[in-house]
Amino acid sequence: MMLRARLLDLLTRPQSVSTTYIAGRRQLVRAMKGNPLMERGYSLTESIRELFKNLSFPGVTTGLIGALFSSMGPGMIVMNAAKQGKLPDEVAVSWIFIIFLMGGLATMFMALYYRTPVVIAWSIPGAVLIGKYLAGGGTIYQAAGVYMTVALVVLLLTATGAIKAVIEHIPVPIMLGMVGGVLLSFGINAFGNAMKLPAVYGIMILVFALWYYFKGLSSKIPGVVVAMIVGAVLLKVNGMTKSIPVAWEVARPVFVSPEFSLKSIVELGIPLFFMVVGVQNIQAVGVLLSRGYTPPVNAMYTVPSVITFINALFCGHTGVTAGPSTAICSSDIAGPKEHRWIAAFFEGVFWVSIGLLAKIGVESAKLAPAEFMQVVAGLAMFEVFSSVFEIAFSQKFRKGALVAFFVAAANVSLFNIGAPFWAIVFGVLMSLITERDHFAFAAKKKAVEAAR
Fold it and tell me: Which residues face 396 on adjacent strands?
């Protein structure tokens, strides 16, 4: 009923709301069908046939961009967390191996089952938090117990419908204001790096812009792919790449026995829980809404929780639905909207490959400067920025959306809980204080729908 009421509310709003967004919201009622943990999806066999029938260069290359983005930066964050905890190299490699492998398999499944560009990955801020926990005397065995506890709690809340109910009651503009604030750093980094080093990154952005002047070519080959190739050549010409010896070997997982400690659950589990529920997954929900998709909300919490149990047994940490990677795969560079799930599928394929060759993947991430991938990621999300800002600030709850945007952009955590969570909290509070009539309007629409 609540979803139907929100749908009616949306359809009675002014026409300034993008039709893409309306199309996505119109499907939310259908997304409720299924069991409490997983919405109903497509036949995997039929989806595989659709995959091969609609293979495209943009789909594959966008998946590659997403995979590179997730391995060059976040992969190094995980390695740094392992070093903080003074973990042996084989444990660190196992950590990288399992999170890439399970994230890749889960992403491939979600793409095929829902035909939606949902990317399952791991918690990047969670890895930072875990590094501090290990450095403070915690063990990898206790951490594994915490991961499993968090996953179990998330599964229980999803099964009861609590998580979906909370998300349904968050005004969408406020949610997207938060998403805009989270993604803002990607745009700032891209253009900031271009101003600092125009001879490389500035030319990349210029090439990206000029490429779209040629409509025929840009419809077949995404501009960000061309910009990335040009950037790689310029880095090589300017002597900014590194030569690193690579030893080809398949990663070997290391098994750990979880230990359950109340102290560890309080110290690490509580902030990690809020990161998963209120910081990470909700970003991806907002991104998909802004792109006109129907987010399979329950599955976006259930699938990462399931793979968390497996991750924990092999030194890996909590799985999540990835906001930035979902933004890349759902962007216009991935091709037609109905086939962008293929980009997510191939990101999963590349992740599995990186996981199997974890040691090589970590070393390869050092070949180019971190700024290079920041520019590529910013360009890949160019259209996503546009749709997020359009929807967040063009309808009701504008003040709440603006507060959510600023809080998320500030990226300051309170009580070890990340800024996106507080962006939602303070955004809703602002709207409750300054835009109470907007809530009253929404409640009235719900009552009308409930009476039908």
Answer: none
